[in-house]
Amino acid sequence: MRRSIYSSDHEAFRGSVRAFLDRHVWPRTEQFIEARAFPRDLWIEAGRQGFLGLGIPERYDGSAAEDYRYNAVLGEELAGVSAALSSSFGIHYDVVAPYLVELVGEEQRKRWLPGFCSGELVTAIGMTEPSAGSDLAALRTTAVRDGDSWVLNGSKTFITNGYSADLVVVAASTSPERRAKGITLFGVETGMDGFSRGRKLDKVGQPESDTAELFFDNVRVPHANVIGEIDRGFVHMMERLPQERIGAAVSNVAHAARILRETIEYVKERKAFGQPVGSFQHNKFLLAELVTQIEVSQAYVDQAVMAHVAGELSAVDAAKAKWWSAQVQNDVLDACVQLHGGYGYMNEYRVARAWRDARVTRIWAGSNEIMKELIGRDLGL
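^ that's the sequence the OP posted. Answer follows.
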């Protein structure tokens, strides 16, 4: 079915992204996996192309693309290469950007945003803790005011870009007795005394996306690095989670759709019992189901993107898009592995990597179970 949410300008932008990927990413995908990271030169090139500052005003060297559809196009194309590429870069340009544009003072914008746009300053967001998981109100990382600074103690885990980030938006409890109503956000920078990182975490999938534990041992953070209002960090996060979740949904569908297209081509060529594997009725029906699942999911996600462009995307609708797209992504990729037979289990095949990479999408950005809880509450249950 023809998609109608993108204009010729969006498609021209898509062409620019594809040219960047063809030149700077596709030839190096194996290198990224072996290094378990995306090198800084790739970030710098993405910044040079204007991809990192889509939502950043021009006065801070951003692209000033206020239309969220440009974010969505970039997310789709990155996900077509790998889920890891989409998640690492998406955390930066799609998740962290609104915090730095909307919630920090002019001095910090001038100090952080030009490097953010150029790729010289890579960012991450530190919410998840070893003992809290999806329960953001149960944070144990604390921040205590001391004169013109705050002293942070605690740790974070599963932080995308955590190993390489120059700036991390960290959620900490500033009024522990108030739980969710006592959380504040801080900009923690590389080089601050007491801020350290553990090893790159050994994940099931997405090896090229550096993921790390972060540790804060009496880290002194200037008051100027407070992001947003004191004790309103939870509200700030909740207000921006819909964008993170629709961004995840965009990537989920695009990731699965790309591998499905590749699988369809594979089953046209792969033969068994003297005929193409795709010609068997079971496989033909299965592929009909998979294509329909992707297209129906795409239609809902597209409408959610348009709602977000209009400033009308609710947290509940974002939750629906997030959990559904993650489930469809995993179901489709599992079927694609099956259609590849034994080759689908081999690491050198993209389908195997994609299947492994996708499993986490039902967990991060709020687990699918949490998404259903939000939807259920909205139903009055």
